[in-house]
């Protein structure tokens, strides 16, 4: 009697799982002797089981422990490194403003004090062809020149989450006006946030 | 199941008394099992380490609530599975809000890729992808069977389904994997 595919699948599955009874084993062995499709099916299932077993055991294996020497060194580094980094950060925080020369101060027309802006030419120029800033500033005929991403806390948003998702970009026009635009990194959206500093 | 239930009962009793070594022994003994359950439920290695850590933390906190230590592994299975389901829900919420990052998920798993030739590595990835692609009702019994060599009865008890259903789901899991994988290179 020739078994249909579903019967074969059940018997083969039970054999692979070690759940085949003696009578079922006799039926399956007879089918395997006479039916090449049954042999092919068994070979495929065995192969898939072997591969799955190996892959699953690999993926669920705990990460290998570090050698003892590495562990000791890491333990020492664990305390030394953060301390050194924290000290460097504190030093940088207090020392940099002292050494940083004033740069890119916008022209004061009326004698009023202007916020100091950090303006340095940077590549690539965001006013290049594909950038939405180009159309915003008037395209090739636009009078604005890209200056820099502004890093002055006076014009940066206070919300740190917003800061992560947007750039504030300073553009200096021919008449010295500084245009600050906000570029949304996620939405490629540009809008002015300040004018004439 | 791989380990003696009597040994587990002794370790559980020790852990309940606050014996740190007993708890460590339980973790060493069953960590692979927990990882397998979490993997089978999550369907990916993303967050695997975090969820496994969380499961063992929960075990430490709740081991006193285990009524019958003889059924420790079923209890552990349910704990791991629930933690993985929660993590999976959190993950899918994050995917909805950070869709472009979702594709990164499986890419980088340093140290996990099998050594050996490229074909074997590709085959390893293919079979894992095929297992991930199985519906959960087929993936869970398949993973439990292949990871821990659980019997139909043990899987049925853990998943709270009849033994016949376990068998049917294993047959269907193998069929779906055959269809998904097509031709595999002959065993070398």
Runs of chain A with pLDDT <50, length 5+? 101-122, 132-143, 151-163
Mean pLDDT figure of chain B: 81
What's the helix-strand series of chain B? HHHHHHHHH
Q: In total, how many beta strands of chain A?
A: 4
Give the CA-based shape of chain A: elongated
List the helices and strands and how they pair.
The complex is a heterodimer of chains A (197) and B (188).
Chain A: H1 5-16, H2 22-34, H3 36-59, H4 68-99, H5 132-136, E1 145-149, H6 160-165, E2 166-172, E3 178-184, E4 189-195
Antiparallel strand pairs in A: 1-2, 2-3, 3-4
Helix pairs in contact in A: 1-2, 1-3, 2-3
Chain B: H1 5-16, H2 20-42, H3 48-62, H4 72-97, H5 99-102, H6 118-133, H7 136-148, H8 152-159, H9 163-181
Written overview of the protein:
The complex is a heterodimer of chains A (197) and B (188). Chain A is of the alpha+beta class and 197 residues long. Chain A contains six helices and four strands; from the N terminus they run αααααβαβββ. The longest helix of chain A is centred in the middle third of the chain and has 32 residues, at 68-99. The radius of gyration of chain A is 35 Å and the shape is elongated. In chain B, helix 2 crosses helix 3 (48-62). Classes of the chains: A alpha+beta (197), B mainly alpha (188). At the A-B interface, helix 1 and helix 3 of A face helix 2, helix 6, helix 7 and helix 9 of B.
Q: What is the compact description of this entry?
A:
The complex is a heterodimer of chains A (197) and B (188). Chain A is α+β, with helices and mostly antiparallel strands.
Keywords:
heterodimer; A: 197 residues; alpha+beta; 4-stranded antiparallel β-sheet; 6 helices; elongated; B: 188 residues; mainly alpha; 9 helices; 72% helix; 0% strand
């Amino acid at each position: 009697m020739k078994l249909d595919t579903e019967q074969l699948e059940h018997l083969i599955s039970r054999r692979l799982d070690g759940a085949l009874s003696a009578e079922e084993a006799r039926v399956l062995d007879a089918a395997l002797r006479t039916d090449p499709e049954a042999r092919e099916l068994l070979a495929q299932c065995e192969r898939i089981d072997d591969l799955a077993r190996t892959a699953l055991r690999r993926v669920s294996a705990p990460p290998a422990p570090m050698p003892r020497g590495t562990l000791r060194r890491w333990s020492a580094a664990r305390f030394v490194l953060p301390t050194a980094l924290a000290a460097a950060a504190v030093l940088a925080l207090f020392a940099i403003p002292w050494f940083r020369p004033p740069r890119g101060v916008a022209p004061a027309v009326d004698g009023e004090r202007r916020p100091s802006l950090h303006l340095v030419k940077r590549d690539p120029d965001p006013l290049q062809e594909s950038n939405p800033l180009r159309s915003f500033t008037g395209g090739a005929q636009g009078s604005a020149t890209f200056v820099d991403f502004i890093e002055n806390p006076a014009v940066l948003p206070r919300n740190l989450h917003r800061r992560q998702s947007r750039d504030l970009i300073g553009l200096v026009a021919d008449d010295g006006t500084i245009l600050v635009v906000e570029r949304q990194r996620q939405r490629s959206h540009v809008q002015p946030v300040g004018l004439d500093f | 199941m791989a380990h003696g239930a009597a040994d587990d009962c002794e370790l559980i009793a020790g852990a309940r008394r606050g014996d740190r070594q007993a708890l460590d022994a339980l973790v060493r003994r069953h960590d692979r099992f927990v990882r397998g359950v979490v993997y089978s439920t999550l369907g990916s290695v993303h967050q695997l380490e975090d969820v496994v850590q969380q499961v063992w933390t929960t075990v430490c906190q709740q081991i006193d609530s285990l009524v019958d230590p003889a059924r420790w592994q079923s209890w552990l299975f349910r704990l791991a599975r629930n933690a993985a389901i929660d993590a999976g829900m959190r993950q899918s919420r994050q995917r909805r809000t950070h869709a472009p990052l979702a594709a990164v998920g499986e890419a980088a798993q340093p140290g996990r890729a099998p050594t050996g030739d490229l074909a074997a590595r590709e085959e390893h990835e293919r079979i894992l992808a095929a297992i991930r692609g199985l519906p959960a009702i087929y993936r869970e019994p398949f993973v439990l069977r292949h990871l821990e060599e659980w019997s139909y009865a043990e899987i049925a008890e853990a998943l709270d389904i009849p033994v016949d259903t376990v068998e049917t789901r294993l047959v269907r899991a193998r069929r779906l994997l055959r269809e998904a994988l097509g031709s595999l290179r002959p065993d070398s």
